[in-house]
Amino acid sequence: DGAPPLRKLTFVRARQPDPPLISEHAMAKMIVLNNVKHTGKEKGDAADAAAGKRTGGAPTAARGVAVADALYSRSAIRMDWPAVRKVGAGLANLGNTCFMNAVMQCLTYTPPLAAFCLANEHTRFKPNA
């Protein structure tokens, strides 16, 4: 039959842990969008404590986000579609762009991001300002 031959793969445990994907400096600048409530001693408690230390005593919302750093209030973000529109154009795959195109199409059809782009909100933010 046309099936490729199978061979057994042996798992080899890592010798050292991977470096963090995001630096502490970058973590301090992040704004958490999802407000997950934790009860008791869960995994998030250590992250909450670390996030609270990073803000330097500024008033914070859940998960250590400084209240003054919020771009939009919760009431300003719509999680539904304000109007029905035509389906957008697809993206052409050029070599190895299939995954990137899939991600871009998923993001484009996410209501808050689509509303952000359609309302020209991106023009409010000046690069390097």
From TrEMBL:
Q: Which UniProt keywords apply?
A: Hydrolase, Protease, Thiol protease, Ubl conjugation pathway
Q: Which InterPro entries match?
A: Papain-like_cys_pep_sf, Peptidase_C19, Peptidase_C19_UCH, USP, USP_CS
Q: Which GO molecular function entries does the Swiss-Prot or TrEMBL record give?
A: cysteine-type deubiquitinase activity
One short Pfam name that applies is UCH
Matches recorded under Gene3D superfamilies: Cysteine proteinases
Give the superkingdom in one word: Eukaryota
Gene Ontology CC: one annotated term: cytosol
- EC number in record: 3.4.19.12
The residue ranges of the USP domain are: 89-129
List the GO biological process terms. Answer: protein deubiquitination; proteolysis
Name the catalysed reactions. Thiol-dependent hydrolysis of ester, thioester, amide, peptide and isopeptide bonds formed by the C-terminal Gly of ubiquitin (a 76-residue protein attached to proteins as an intracellular targeting signal)
Q: Which family does it belong to?
A: Belongs to the peptidase C19 family.
PANTHER family in the record: UBIQUITIN CARBOXYL-TERMINAL HYDROLASE (PTHR24006), UBIQUITIN CARBOXYL-TERMINAL HYDROLASE 36 (PTHR24006:SF758)
What's the protein name? Answer: ubiquitinyl hydrolase 1
| Source organism per UniProt | Mantoniella antarctica
